Write the structure tokens for this entry.
Amino acid sequence: MIRVMVVDDQELVRTGFRMVLGAQPDIEVVGEAADGAAAIETLRTTEADVVLMDVRMPRMDGVEAARLICASPGSPKVLMLTTFDLDEYAFEAIKAGVSGFLLKDVPPPELISAIRSVHAGDAVIAPSTTRRLLDRVAVHLPAGDALKRDDDTLTAREREVLYHVALGLSNSEIAQQLQLAEATVKTHLGRILAKLSLRDRAQAVVYAYESGLVTPDRSQG
């Protein structure tokens, strides 16, 4: 059973999510909150696997709440919800450690699939969406001279895999580009995440941009 907590300042939205999710045999809504601060308070006494988190809320917004939740060991996965496509908060949300980013009007089957994927340890931000997001916020990234490189941390092959991940390629596409088995690409990505202490693919993409491995014009640094 996947335990879900719903965080949104609109009671009608929470009710709608609760009805949709409660109809699933493998999902249980274990709590809800009207803002980020209340969510953190509730999580002290309620065990959840996935938190559906609205972005814009009073007192404490979703990004700050997600940052605090994700910083705790054994914390639930956070799936961020917004009414705006490629919301300006999305980049900070990914950096904060959220495992997914969806529009509030996502069809119920996609929402349910996203919750299951996040619970399984996957990110639900499509590579192409992540790339468009980062292109949009690239102007807010540090200048090239200010970027930190970790060339000694990753092997040449791992940097190559990370570069292609950041360009929005899937594991199968990377395997084809680099003439590797898809399982080998997955192994490399797992090692990249472990070495850089990253939670998932989405944070790996952010790291690639911030480290200078990928620049907004997609030239390799």
About this structure: Strands lie at 2-7, 27-33, 50-54, 77-82, 100-103. The radius of gyration is 18 Å.
